[in-house]
Design a protein that fits this description.
Elements lengths: L1 E5 L14 E5 L3 H17 L1 H13 L11 E3 H9 L11 H10 L2 H11 L5 H7 L32 E3 H11 L10 E2 L5 E2 L7 E3 L20 E3 L2 H9 L7 H5 L3 H4 L5 H14 L4 H7 L5 H6 L5 H6 L5 H6 L2 H11 L6 H13 L1 H11 L4 E3 L2 E3 L21 E2 L4 H22 L8 H21 L26 H12 L1
Antiparallel strand pairs: 1-2, 3-4, 5-6, 7-8, 9-10, 10-11
Helix pairs in contact: 4-5, 16-18, 17-18, 19-20
Length: 492
C-alpha cells in the first residue's frame, strides 16, 4: 500500500484552507515490482538530502554538519550553496558523468570532485566576487581574511577557505530563497508532519541546468524542500523556462517532444477505468473520494462513447433511424428530459413500443449537442431561430456530464457578470432606457446560466421554460399523441 494524503473530501472546506486526510492506496499486483523499484530508488538518491533537511529542522542551522566557527574550502561551500557539481576547468569527462547516471551514488559524485581538485577554479573567482557575496571574507588556511580582494585578484582557490558562520549570516540576510523548507504541516487528525518525513523532496533554487547535464551534488547541496507543484508542472508541461524532463532524459525525438500536466494523468486514469467498465463505486474508492459524483467530474469520455455502451433491444435498432436511435439511447440511460421524452413515455405506456418508436422517428430526428447541453427538438421543417441561445430559458435544453459543456457555461456566466458590473458602475447621468434594457438582458441571461450550471446531467434545465425554436403562434399546434387520442375517441 501507499500512504498518502487525499484531497477532494467532503470536509475540505475549512477556515484555515485546504485540508489533507491521511489515507492508503492498495497497489495492483501487476504494478508492485515497478513501484517498489521506483520508490526505493527515490529513497536512496534523496537520502543525503533527507538527512540534511532533518538536521536543519532540528538545529535551525543551514550547514548543520559544521560548527559556526569551522573553516571549509571555498570550493566546497560553492557547491553547498549552488548544488553545481562543477567548480573548475576543464569540463568533467563524459565517462564520469555516465558513471554517475548509472548509479546516482555518492561514490560517483566523489570521483567527479576529486577529478576537479587539481584544476583551475576561475568560476570561484566570479562567484565569490559577485554582489553581496563579496562581503563574505575569503580566508587563508589558518583563518586570516584575505584583505582588499577584487574580482580580478589572483587567489589560490585550492587553499582558500570560508567560515561557516559568515556564510550562514549571508544566506539569512541576503539569500532567504536558499533556505530549506523546515516548517511542519498539521494534518486533519492533528498529526504534525515535517518535510523530511515525505518521500518526495527535492533540491530548490539550484543553478545546474546548463552545465554537465544538470548534475546536482545531493551529498552537499543545502537548500531542500517539498516538491513544488508549479516547478513540477513547468518541468513536464514546458510552461516556463528551462528544459522539460522529457527533453532532458528522453531517448527518442518522440519522447523528448512529450508534454503533459501531472494532474492530467489522474484524469486519464479515471476516464480509462470508466471506459473499461469499472464500477463508479470502485473508481471512487480507488481515488479516495467521498462522493461518486466527484468521479464523474473527471470522466472525459465523449457523449458518443457513453451512448455506444448502452445495450438496446434488437427491435429498437431495426425500427429507429440514426438520430432517433441516439435519442432512445439517451432516454434509456436517463440522460435526457423534456417534452419529447415525456411524450415518448406516454405513447409507450398507452400504445406500446412500436408506436413509441414511430413517435421518435417522426419527432426526435433533431438530436443536437450544443456547447451548453443537449437539444432533442426536431428542426426538420425549419431551423431553430434561436440556435445556440438555448441557455436563455429554452425548454428543450438538457444538461449532460460533458466537461467542456460546464466550462462553456462558466465562461458565459463570467462574461455576463462582467457586463452587469460594468453597467451598474455607470454614473447616474449616463443611464437611460437603453442602459436599463441592457442591464435587464444581462441579468436574465446570467440567472438562466446559473440555473443551467446547477442542473444535474440528464435533467431539463428549464422544464417550465419557453420553446425558443418556434413562434408563439406555432406553440399551439398538435402532436402525434393528440392525433392518436382523436383516433382512439373515434374507435370508441
Amino acid at each position: 500500500m501507499i500512504r498518502h494524503f487525499a484531497e477532494k473530501q467532503d470536509e475540505d472546506e475549512r477556515a484555515e484552507g485546504l485540508s489533507f486526510y491521511e489515507n492508503t492506496q492498495h497497489v495492483p499486483p501487476m504494478f508492485e515490482e515497478i513501484l517498489i523499484e521506483t520508490l526505493e530508488h527515490i529513497e536512496s538518491i534523496t537520502a543525503p538530502l533527507r538527512e540534511r533537511l532533518k538536521r536543519q529542522t532540528e538545529t535551525r542551522r543551514i550547514f548543520p554538519e559544521y560548527p559556526e566557527d569551522a573553516l571549509i574550502p571555498a570550493w566546497e561551500m560553492y557547491v553547498r550553496m549552488t548544488g553545481n557539481i562543477a567548480f573548475s576547468d576543464p569540463d568533467i569527462p563524459v565517462s564520469l558523468v555516465q558513471n554517475y547516471r548509472e548509479t546516482y551514488g555518492a561514490d560517483a559524485l566523489d570521483k567527479i570532485r576529486q577529478y576537479q581538485l587539481g584544476g583551475c577554479h576561475r568560476m570561484l573567482t566570479g562567484f565569490w566576487g559577485r554582489g553581496s557575496q563579496r562581503g563574505i571574507p575569503i580566508r587563508k588556511t589558518w583563518g586570516k581574511p584575505i584583505y582588499d580582494r577584487g574580482v580580478d585578484q589572483d587567489i589560490d582557490w585550492q587553499s582558500a577557505y570560508v567560515r561557516v558562520g559568515d556564510v550562514e549570516r549571508h544566506v539569512w540576510e541576503n539569500r532567504t530563497t536558499k533556505l530549506s523548507d523546515t516548517m511542519p504541516t498539521t494534518i486533519t487528525d492533528g498529526t504534525v508532519l515535517y518535510p523530511h518525513e515525505l518521500m518526495l523532496i527535492m533540491p530548490v533554487r539550484n543553478v545546474i541546468e546548463g552545465r554537465n547535464n544538470g548534475i546536482l551534488d545531493t551529498t552537499l547541496y543545502s537548500a531542500i524542500g517539498r516538491i513544488d507543484r508549479h516547478t513540477l508542472i513547468r518541468s513536464t508541461s514546458g510552461k516556463g523556462s528551462g528544459d522539460t524532463l522529457f527533453e532532458r532524459y528522453g531517448m527518442t525525438e518522440e519522447d523528448r517532444a512529450l508534454r503533459l500536466t501531472p494532474h492530467s494523468l489522474r484524469h486519464l486514469q479515471n476516464t480509462e477505468l470508466f471506459r473499461l467498465g469499472v464500477a463508479d463505486t470502485i473508481i471512487t474508492k480507488k481515488f479516495n473520494r467521498r462522493s461518486v459524483q466527484q468521479s464523474y467530474v473527471y470522466d472525459h469520455r465523449s457523449l458518443a462513447e457513453d451512448l455506444t455502451d448502452i445495450d438496446l433491444a434488437p427491435e429498437a435498432e431495426e425500427r429507429l433511424g440514426d438520430k432517433p436511435l441516439q435519442v432512445f439511447r439517451l432516454i434509456s440511460a436517463n440522460k435526457a428530459s423534456g417534452h419529447v421524452v415525456e411524450e415518448f413515455r406516454r405513447v409507450q405506456r398507452e400504445y406500446g413500443e412500436a408506436a413509441a418508436f414511430d413517435y421518435l422517428n417522426a419527432e426526435a430526428d433533431g438530436l443536437h449537442v450544443t456547447p451548453y447541453g443537449l437539444c432533442i427538438n426536431s428542426f426538420t421543417s425549419d431551423p431553430c431561430p434561436k440556435h445556440l441561445e438555448c441557455f436563455n430559458g429554452c425548454l428543450h435544453l438538457a444538461r449532460t456530464d460533458v466537461i467542456s459543456e460546464q466550462e462553456n457555461l462558466q465562461r458565459m456566466r463570467d462574461k455576463f457578470a462582467k457586463v452587469i458590473i460594468t453597467l451598474e458602475a455607470l454614473p447616474e447621468n449616463q443611464r437611460n432606457v437603453g442602459w436599463a434594457n441592457q442591464l435587464t438582458h444581462a441579468r436574465v441571461r446570467y440567472e438562466n446560466i446559473v440555473k443551467a450550471l446547477g442542473t444535474d446531467a440528464g435533467m431539463q434545465v428549464f422544464p417550465d421554460g419557453i420553446d425558443l425554436s418556434v413562434s408563439a403562434e406555432r406553440n399551439a399546434g398538435t402532436t402525434i399523441i393528440d392525433t392518436m387520442k382523436r383516433l382512439r375517441d373515434l374507435d370508441d
